Amino acid sequence: MILLRAIGLLLLLTMASLLPSSAAEADLRAIIAKFATATNFSATEAVVRELAASGDPAVERPLSALADGELYIRKGDSQVFVGKDGAGGVELLDPLSGKKAADAAKTDLTKIKVNNGLRRTIRDALGTLTLRAKDAGVRLAAATTMFKTPDAANIEPLDAAIAAETEPAVKAMFEQARAATVLVSDKPEADKLAAISLIAARGDRDALSLLTSVEANSQGAVKDAAAGAIGRINSTLALWDAGQNIWYGISLGSVLLLAAIGLAITFGVMGVINMAHGEMVMLGAYTTFVVQQVIRTSFPSIFDWSLVVALPLAFLVAALVGLAIERGIIRFLYGRPLETLLATWGVSLILQQAVRTIFGPTNQEVGNPSWMSGSFDIGQLAITWNRLWILVFALLVFAVLLYVMKRTPWGLQMRAVTANRRMAASMGIRTPWVDALTFALGSGIAGIAGVALSQIDNVSPNLGRGYIIDSFMVVVFGGVGNLWGTLVGAFSLGIVNKFLEPYAGAVLGKIVVLVLIILFIQKRPRGLFALKGRAVEA
After folding, report:
1. Number of alpha carbons in the 13 Å side-chain half-sphere of residue 390
2. In what side-by-side order are the strands of the sheet with 109-111?
3. Taking the complete model, does pTM exceed 0.70, yes or no?
């Protein structure tokens, strides 16, 4: 008996919980039915607002269908359906459940018409509905939308959402959205002044845009408060803009460092003006393209590791080509810089044409792995993952190369040849092989620079041409053959370029930088960090 009573009580509780739901659905269907009697856009808008006021997520389906022009009235019985075009006519779906109800010919239906004003109302209504979504990200997105497109009708839904919200970040965004709606409402002046204070604390460009509109359409204390807030935000944004330019400069500097660091080695140790250095970068980028093509067709599951696979292969390909150039051409031209320049310029044209013949003249697609895609914000700074990883990679390459130069026997031999070639040869160092391996190392580093550049630039036969002049400027400015000078020179030129571009443009900015370097070299002919040694001093 006790068991039967418990079961009966459970059934009663279950039915009680279902009744409000059934009653709420009936109320929603009654509201939706009013679309059939709405004779103009204003009447339709009133029905939309009534549905939004219910706060029930189920009304998202009919409202979205209305915005998309897919809400119909069946002429025979004036029922409202969501309609999907099919082969034999229109498939009618229940506006709340989405289940198929029937099929009908278009002649038996009347589409509910909407205009731009009604679409805005629907958009705001849908935004209000998502204020109670289970996903905090959805709620935050809805609050952001309502902040950017404030509507005085959203104040009450926002008040309810603020009272119910438990996530601090979402609640703060709700409060900012409410402040934005207060500024476009007929609330008292005191409320608007408090709203301006809250929005000014946000300090971003969205806040600036909103307050600019408020200042233009207000009078008295509200106008003055908005003007003061605009001034404070502009000051803050100027500092963030300077920080953004510094980041862009560091990002450009990391690219210049990768492109120039191999040239710094060959130019410093061998004194060779290698005009084919940019083509080593290009070969590394095309190696990345080939690796990705193979992985896409044969091993798509490891695409995120494609750059890791491409790095050693790009180094090997570029290093072998560099070794062949040194052994086949450059070793016969030492001491004749003009002939070396012309010979390597000819090699660069040959390599460009070879790549153009094999891969075609058009740009090739090199994809970004998932871990190099997207961006994130730090305050008002926008930082992309691919640029950040390239910066980390450039510093890692620099550290490894510095270790090789300072802590290995081969690095000792390279430095000995740099300081005094004849003395190094008399001590038993095989300077021709040091030259060959040094040129191969510099070319290999250019190859792995091409792997990084393939993520931010077009992979084409002309890829290296855009970096060769900048690379020489970095090497000459920092000090020929000095790795620390290359590091400082790359980041200095990158930052200076980015601060000049807004005022002078990209091309004129580079010309100004070139003029400044020429003037600097007049005072310090050996660059920022000059090499020391008997051969140099002589």
Report:
1. 31
2. 100-104, 89-93, 80-86, 71-74, 109-111
3. no
